[in-house]
Structure formats: C-alpha cells, structure tokens
Amino acid sequence: SVFPGITEDMQQCAIRLLFVISNINDLYFCPLLPYLVILLLHHVSEEEVYVVITSILDRGDLRRKYFIINQRFYEAFIEHLPSLNQRFANAENLQFSSLHPSLYGYLFRSWISSLLFLSVKSCVFNRVVDAFLDVGIWLFPSLYIAYLNRYGATLLRGELGPNEEENAKQIESLLYGLDEEEWETLLLESVSLSGLMTTEEVAVLEEI
C-alpha cells in the first residue's frame, strides 16, 4: 500500500537489494533507501539499481546529500525544522507555524514518501525528482518552508483542528491540488532555499 503499482517481481528485487545493500554497508537506519530503490526499479534493472545506490554510498558527499543514515541525525533534522522556518519564513508562515508547531514532523515524514511516488501528477512528479537529484534531502524542509510562505494565509483560513495528523493530510491534499505552474514556482523557490540553508545547517546537524 505504501508503494502503489509495485509488482511481485519488483517487490522481490527490492527485498534482495535492501538486504544486500544494508548488510554490505552496515545500514541499520536509512529511511529513504526503500523509496529510492523502488523508485529506481521502475526505470532500470536490479543490477543497475545496485550500482547506482552503492556508488552513492561509496562517496561521502553523495551519501550526505541523498541519505540520512543515522537515527539521531534524522531526529535532529526534524527537530531543527522550526529554527529553519524562523530563519526563512514570512509573516503568514510564522503565524501559521506558531499555531501548529508539531506539524513539522508529520509533514516531513510523509512528504519524503508521498512526493517520491504517485500522489502527484506524473509531470509534477518528474520535476520533484529532478529537484531532489539537484539538492538532495534538503528539498523536503525547503519545500515545506516555501509552501507555508506562499500558502500559509490560505491554511489559516482553513478548518484545521487539534489532530495534527489529520491537519497534515489536509495540507497534503491542498498541495496535490496545485496546478503545474504553481508547482514549478514552488519547486524553484525550494531549490533556491536549499542553496541558502545547506552549508550552515549541515554543520549544525552534524554537531548535534
């Protein structure tokens, strides 16, 4: 159910790849790995997926760009989102986030999976993947901030309740309702934000 459209053969390929890659590289925590493996299996062979993933893991700069392989780093990544938002947010965003501060974790966890799969149109999906290849894992927090900067006022006028998980789903539904032009603008803003935040924030998170 997490990976719509996956065949039985593809599932078996993914299991083999995840087992081998995780054991060879001592990966005990890497939440993005299954999504990337299955994403690649939609386009290239099992052997080619292995080469791509291991090539990334063999290089420290690419490993840091595309993967979070430490649970404490992952937790710090999410915990650090409010301070990132304060740094880059406009007035509508800050007002929204002060009312719904715990949405950071819900949205970050869900967007990693949903944005890399079939929750958006294929033309938008291709642009999301291009943006991810360009800036890596920093696409997700920058997209969150860019989205709230642009649509925070709309969300404040919506009917958000006390259940943050339900609120996150409502925000996602609004996101998926954007047209292609709005998505293109949002992704351009996100990539630009990623370039501003990465160097300093990576140093902060690695220290944590």
Describe the structure in your own words.
By secondary structure, the protein is an all-alpha fold. It is 76% helix and 0% strand. It is built from 12 helices and no strands. α1 (8-24) packs parallel to α3 (46-58) and α8 packs across α11 (164-176). The radius of gyration is 17 Å and the shape is globular. The two termini are 34 Å apart.
Briefly characterize the structure.
This protein has helices at residues 8-24, 33-41, 46-58, 60-66, 71-79, 81-88, 91-99, 103-115, 122-135, 139-157, 164-176, 180-207. The protein has 208 residues and is mostly helical.
Helix content: over 70%
Q: How many alpha or pi helices?
A: 12
Low-confidence stretches: none
What does the largest sheet look like? none
Name its key features.
single chain; 208 residues; mainly alpha; 0% strand; globular
Layout of strands and helices, then pairs:
Elements: H1 8-24, H2 33-41, H3 46-58, H4 60-66, H5 71-79, H6 81-88, H7 91-99, H8 103-115, H9 122-135, H10 139-157, H11 164-176, H12 180-207
